[in-house]
């Protein structure tokens, strides 16, 4: 199993640009989480999908952030327009609510907004 | 004024010794606990989990102990190796909630 796959690994962009982060969860997993990690605030949950449906997006900081999960094998997190304070490592994690498996994380996308 | 970043507790251990990393949780409804290891530049990696109907679980070189009375969790790593250097997070789930509650993390440093 390749695990959770995120792309790109690194993204450097200028303030105001649109950023799209991508995630391929582990096959067979039905829950997907987007997290953000910074030194200041640690790991923060942004949004949770179950069976491709957004269940809780209360962690999404602003309307500039949006996430989609068009099918069970793909999700995107979009920031438009990006701001320097969005600089962080963004992690995608997947799990199974069927057999209560622990979350498996991708290696993250390190976003730098200048 | 200036805001202060998260201060990660640090544990320094001699190579070959055993490491014990502690974690306290607050929600008595938590019934599932996980330890993750995060190496630099990588995502958190699952190490071991335990459910509240157990008080001890062993894996390869790792043991998790759960004390529900005082809401305390610990991770023991036997014969610590340089590859064990990482930040270790505990996380708790329960009370009908899907959201993991994360500890702040402990940075484990291995002295040669």
Explain briefly what this protein structure is.
With about 110 residues, chain A is mainly β. Chain A has strands spanning about 5, 10-15, 20-25, 30-40, 40-50, 55, 65-70, 75-80, 90-95, 105, 110-114.
Distance between the termini of chain B: 40 Å
Largest β-sheet summary of chain A: 7 strands, mixed
| Low-confidence parts of chain B | 1-5
Mean of the pLDDT scores of chain B? 89
The Rg value of chain B, from CA coordinates, equals 14 Å
Strand content of chain B: over 45%
- Per DSSP E runs of 2 or more residues, the count of β-strands of chain B stands at 10
Q: Which structural class do you get from the secondary structure elements of chain B?
A: mainly beta
Radius of gyration of chain A, Cα only, in angstroms? Answer: 13 Å
Please report the total strand number of chain A as a whole number.
11
Major sheet summary line of chain B: 6 strands, mixed
Number of helices of chain B: 0
How would you portray this structure in words?
The complex is a heterodimer of chains A (114) and B (112). Chain A has 114 residues and is mainly beta. In chain A, 0% of the residues lie in helices and 54% in strands. Chain A contains no helices and eleven strands. In chain A, the strands form two sheets. In chain A, strands 2, 4, 5, 6, 9, 10 and 11 form a seven-stranded mixed beta sheet that branches. In chain A, a hairpin with a 2-residue loop joins strand 7 (65-71) and strand 8 (74-79). Chain A is globular, with a radius of gyration of 13 Å. Chain B is mostly beta strands. In chain B, 0% of the residues lie in helices and 56% in strands. In chain B, strands 1, 3, 4, 8, 9 and 10 form a six-stranded mixed beta sheet that branches. A four-stranded antiparallel beta sheet of chain B has the order 2-7-6-5, with no helix packed on it. In chain B, strand 3 (30-38) and strand 4 (45-51) form a beta hairpin. The model of chain B is unreliable at 1-5 (pLDDT under 50). The chains are: A mainly beta (114), B mainly beta (112). Chain A binds chain B through residues 4, 31, 39-43, 45, 48, 50, 55-56, 91, 93, 97, 100, 102-108, and chain B through 3, 5-6, 32, 34, 36, 41-46, 49, 89, 98-100, 102, 104-105.
């Amino acid at each position: 199993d390749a695990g959770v796959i995120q792309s790109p690994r690194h993204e450097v962009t200028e303030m105001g640009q649109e950023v799209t982060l991508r995630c391929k969860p582990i096959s067979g997993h039905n829950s997907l989480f987007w997290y953000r990690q910074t030194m200041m605030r640690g790991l923060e949950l942004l949004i949770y999908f179950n069976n491709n449906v957004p269940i809780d997006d209360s962690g999404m900081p602003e309307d500039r952030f949006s996430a989609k999960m068009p099918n069970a094998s793909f999700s995107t997190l979009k920031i438009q327009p990006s701001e320097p304070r969005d600089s962080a490592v963004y992690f995608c994690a997947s799990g199974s609510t069927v057999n209560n498996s622990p979350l498996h994380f991708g290696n993250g996308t390190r976003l730098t907004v200048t | 004024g200036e805001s202060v970043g998260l201060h990660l507790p640090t544990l320094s251990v001699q190579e070959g010794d055993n490491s014990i990393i502690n974690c306290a949780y607050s929600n008595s409804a938590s019934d599932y606990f996980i330890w993750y290891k995060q190496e630099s530049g990588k995502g958190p990696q699952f190490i071991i989990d335990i459910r509240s109907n157990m008080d001890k679980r062993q894996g390869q070189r790792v043991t998790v102990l759960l004390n529900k009375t005082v809401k305390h969790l610990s991770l023991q790593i036997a014969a610590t190796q340089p590859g064990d250097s990482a930040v270790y997070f505990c996380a708790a789930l329960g009370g009908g909630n899907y959201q993991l509650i994360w500890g702040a993390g402990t940075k484990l440093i291995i002295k040669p």
